[in-house]
Design goal:
Helices cover 53% and strands 9% of the residues. By secondary structure, it is mostly helical. The model has no long low-confidence stretch (mean pLDDT 89).
Length: 89
């Protein structure tokens, strides 16, 4: 049983590595991160703009999603603090 478990763990680790190495970072996003990303078009959005459009998502979650999208270089942050705006890359 232990060999089966370790073999399965190794296979899943290899699949996760392959997924992360692909060129499509959209596959790495959660449902909420994808929902935030779909709001971006040609306009810049602030956290409050996103919160108004996605009122069912808490502000903290929106900020975490934006941080993840910036880290994956799907969006870009312009400005600091409350005046920060995010635009699609």
């Amino acid at each position: 049983w232990l060999n089966f478990f370790l073999d399965t763990l190794l296979i899943q680790g290899q699949k996760a590595k392959e997924l992360m190495e692909q060129d499509d970072p959209m596959k790495l996003l959660s449902e909420r991160q994808t929902e935030v990303h779909t709001l971006f078009g040609t306009v810049a959005l602030s956290v409050m703009d996103i919160k108004k459009k996605l009122s069912h998502i808490p502000e903290v979650t929106i900020k975490q999603a934006l941080a993840r999208l910036v880290a994956l270089k799907l969006i870009e942050r312009r400005g600091l603090g409350r005046s920060a705006r995010y635009v699609k890359v």
